[in-house]
Design brief:
CATH superfamily of the largest domain: 4-hydroxy-3-methylbut-2-enyl diphosphate reductase, catalytic domain
Order of helices and strands: EHEHEHEHEHEHEEHEHEHEHEH
Strand content: 15-25%
Number of strands: 12
Radius of gyration: 21 Å
Strand order of the largest sheet: 1-12-10-11
Shape: flat
Largest sheet: 4 strands, parallel
Structural class: alpha/beta
CATH topology of the largest domain: Cobalt-precorrin-4 Transmethylase, domain 1
Oligomer: single chain
């Protein structure tokens, strides 16, 4: 199974820089393995995932080959309402306790693939809520990791940008944390604005290490005129890598799904091109892009879904 890719031109003399680290983080590897193990252990049972297990459409396709059904949508509770029997897998982004308990009450077999780093952040939030704190949570609107924390709780305030801080009221006890895949630079600016207005706030920066070191590697690039980030458009960590490349004044920054997208680009004027990938991007996809860039005679290749996971 695959797609035939047409040949296109590029500068055969360009230098290719393979940014390290890149690709799958440990939380993604763990979530995919959990899903694979579940499919193997319960071959006759319907298996559903509430949203994309990780934000990559090729991973979704690979899971479908295993018979796992991905229910897509922003509202996880509405997705859960579609499941009446079988197994439900919670994605690497975490899930609210409200939805978890509802799944249990429905009699579903619940399997949790939440990334341990995400779970640690959620536990910190819950611990401080139990102590009467107001929670300032820095994250992306409608992102499943953020929604798992907010989930309609009036004591959790979602902050998506620095100007949101001005709209917040005054509270005696404030705990501040963040979505694990945010930009380290964007979060630092928001933390600064919060500290200025609320000097008594307790701040716990929770950017996961995999996100941090990938972002730092992009920020450290020098004398690069083109940057390719292999990652899904729905992947927040992939988009943040591209954003940091632009902030680093790299002239041409592209977020691409796969080698199909790369072959549509005009790279004839690229002299030094760097390539990295998001934490939810299969290594197979990134390697295909690298092979294409390194081989000017490459005319046709395929994307084999069976090699994705």
């Amino acid at each position: 199974m695959g797609y035939i890719l047409p040949q296109t031109g590029y500068n055969v003399d360009m230098e290719i820089i393979k940014v390290s680290p890149r690709g799958y983080c440990k939380g993604v590897v763990r979530a995919i393995q959990i899903a694979k193990d579940t499919a193997k252990a319960y071959p006759e049972t319907p298996i559903y995932i509430l949203g994309m297990l990780v934000h990559n459409t090729y991973v979704k396709a690979g899971l479908e080959h295993l018979g796992i059904i991905t229910l897509e949508g922003k509202d996880r509770e509405a997705l859960l309402d579609q499941v009446d029997e079988g197994i439900v897998i919670f994605t690497a982004h975490g899930i609210s306790d409200h939805i978890r308990q509802k799944a249990i009450r429905k009699g579903l077999h619940v399997i949790d693939a939440t990334c341990p780093d995400v779970k640690r952040t959620q536990d910190l939030v819950n611990q401080h809520l139990a102590k009467g704190f107001e929670i300032f949570y820095i994250g992306k609107a409608q992102h499943p990791e953020a929604m798992a924390v907010v989930d309609g709780n009036p004591n959790v305030h979602l902050i998506t940008k620095q100007s949101d801080v001005k709209q917040l009221g005054m509270y005696d006890q404030i705990f501040v944390t963040n979505q694990t895949t945010m930009s380290i630079f964007e979060v630092a600016d928001i933390f600064g604005a919060i500290q200025e207005k609320y000097p008594h706030a307790i701040i716990a920066e929770e950017i996961c290490n995999a996100t941090r070191i990938r972002q730092e590697a992009i920020a450290a690039l020098q004398d690069v005129d083109t940057l390719l980030i292999v990652g899904d458009a729905s992947s927040n960590n992939s988009k943040r890598l591209a954003d940091i490349g632009k902030q680093n004044n790299i002239a041409h920054v592209y977020l691409v799904n796969d080698v199909l997208d790369v072959q549509k680009l005009d790279l004839t004027n690229s002299q030094r091109i760097a390539i990295s990938s998001g934490a939810s991007t299969p290594t197979y996809l990134t390697n295909q892009v690298i092979s294409y860039l390194e081989n000017p005679n490459l005319k046709v290749t395929t994307i084999d879904i069976d090699k994705i996971i």
